[in-house]
Amino acid sequence: MKTCRILVNTPLSHGGIGDLYNFKLTPSLTLGCGSWGGNSVSENVGVKHLLNIKTVAERRENMLWFRTPEKVYIKKGCLPVALSELKDIMGKKKVFIVTDTFLYNNGYTKSITDKLDEMGITHTTFYNVAPDPTLACAKEGAAQMVSFAPDCQKRTKPTIWRYC
Question: What are the structural domains of the chain?
Fold first, then answer.
């Protein structure tokens, strides 16, 4: 078969490009180069691109992760359930809310703060978050959080905080 890239267990439209499913495969705009291909690559074309070398690439996921809470509440009407569980099951008494200026000024956080007031949970809101927050913005919020000292604030490294 006249081909320079053989992709195993990979969606063709993404796998041929490289990186998404084959993070050790040099990106190509089509399925290989070589004298058979007559196509282009994402790097400077050199002598190696004229060689007809078959590359077999099996699908390998470039594993990424992010940490999520144990429970995530979604759907209309979940807020009272989530907040009551915060107090009754988790036993929290102080809450630090982070939002942006638009949501705060338009009253989108009011339903949360009203419910927290009703439940007797002390809270404060940091709402000086810009659409593309800077490190200075994060430091300002972290300083305000430290001074408020909400429940379940755990410092894991000098500048990294983890929340329950």
Answer: 5-58 (no CATH), 78-163 (3.40.50.1970)
